[in-house]
Amino acid sequence: MHGKSLESFSHILSRMIEQLTGTFVHVHLEVNDYMKAKDERLFRFLDSKISLVMSTGRPTQVQNLNSYDRKKAHNYISEKAIEKLTTHSE
User: How many domains does the chain have?
Assistant: First the structure.
């Protein structure tokens, strides 16, 4: 559900490669563009939150993101380079 099996398999595969080689390798698996579509949905959602913050001038929260998606969200918003728009995690 929600790509958890794909993420878990990627993590396990990364650890197996690390055990064999002694070097961490990030493995990204893509099945039928699932992860790409998931990222696109996240970015559209973030764009709507950015629009809300810019129009109201009030802060907002984005909840229920795993650590990897939080990092992608911070990076995405940072790359927008919108003056006076910042992010932080609690």
Answer: 2
- C-alpha 52/C-alpha 46 separation (Å) is 10
- Which range of residues forms the domain containing residue 64? 32-90
Using a pLDDT cut of 70, give the percent of the chain over it.
97
43 shares its domain with 66 = yes
- List Cβ neighbours of 85 (8 Å cut-off, separation of 6 or more): 50, 53, 54, 77
* DSSP assignment letter at 84: T
Token digits of residue 77: 């918003």
With pLDDT > 90 as the criterion, what percentage of the chain qualifies? 50
One domain for residues 25 and 43:
no
> Has this prediction a pTM greater than 0.70?
yes
Using DSSP's 3-state secondary structure scheme, residue 25 falls into coil
